[in-house]
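Two quick folds needed for the group meeting slides. Do the first one here.
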Amino acid sequence: MDHDIRFAGKTFPAGTDLAATFRFDSYRFTWRRKLTSRDNLDVWAGFSAKIRDSSISLQGGGQKAEKTNTGFVPLINFLVDWRFAHPWSLRIAGDALGAPQGRAEDVLFAAAYDISSATKLFAGYRVLEGGANNAEVYTFSLFHYAVAGMEIRY
């Protein structure tokens, strides 16, 4: 960079080689209730309590600065499971909520196959997006990726 960078109380002089690290861990507890159940469709809605633990750090020129933040994020939870042709189904599930301080969306679009009444395989696409915009920080991230998994009910 051709100018100094001020971050987390430290100044990194112009021209300093910097390494940046971004860490974002999240933990969720979800409660949801079935709103409707038909022969081929289940719809659920509820709430998720998300705890996020994040940090951004810069290191270079013999110094390191780090900004950490841990906090609670309330989210609306939803799940739609459409069994269009047994044993196949389509599923849309996620957590999302927006506020003036920021937003969070984590949504899964998947095809599922029932191996048995208690076991289901699924594969699909997941989008995770969110961030904050306030007096202290401006940060938004977007991640999207393929997913595959197994659901076992007992």
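Then this one, please, same format:
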Amino acid sequence: MSKADRPFVAVIGGLSKLDTAKATAAKAVAHEIGAELAKADFGLVVYFSADDSLEPHVVSGYVPALAEGAGAIRVRIAEPYAGQVKFKEEATTRKELFDSDHFPGQDWEAPFYRSLAEEQGFKGERVDAVLLLGGANTTFIAGQIALARRLPTLAVNAFGGSAGRIWSQMAQASPGKHPAWGTRSAEDFVKQLKQECEEAATRRKEARRREQLLTNMIA
């Protein structure tokens, strides 16, 4: 797959509401998902690097599983947190993977949600899919945006939180299409996410073709 065709998945969630045992298990699951995203040639979009955020644990699985020359990580930081968001892999193994930029202004919420809500979000970048695990209000709103946009979404329900609520909505809307976490391998879940991204890309291509045909007819 060319770099231009690589789908990017926004990594959104948090572990702060989990007890120690569940948080440890959630970090292991995040690491496993990160490795499978790397093998499937996804790029990542990440926002925070604190230990109680989902992102650093996905990144820790993603980076070592990448094939040579593969992978990309967009670090999109709210301006008030510029300089505070750092992943250990940036300073050690694969600094070239990371593309860091920050949303303008002091309000992080509006540009963060717009980056998910708009077809061409922050600086024209497209978010192709969403990964949700745990989390609270921000994760729930992000999940609602993803569902409204029909973005391919992997919501891990095993640890509850807002990701569990989003998974319940998805499972009820499409019975049998979104099995509970643990009933299949992480590899299978990521394969399904990749297939859904490819189907969405096909729909976008067809929409552009129809739009061009209409333009030509009008002309």
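Slide caption for protein two: The first strand starts at residue 8 and ends at 14.
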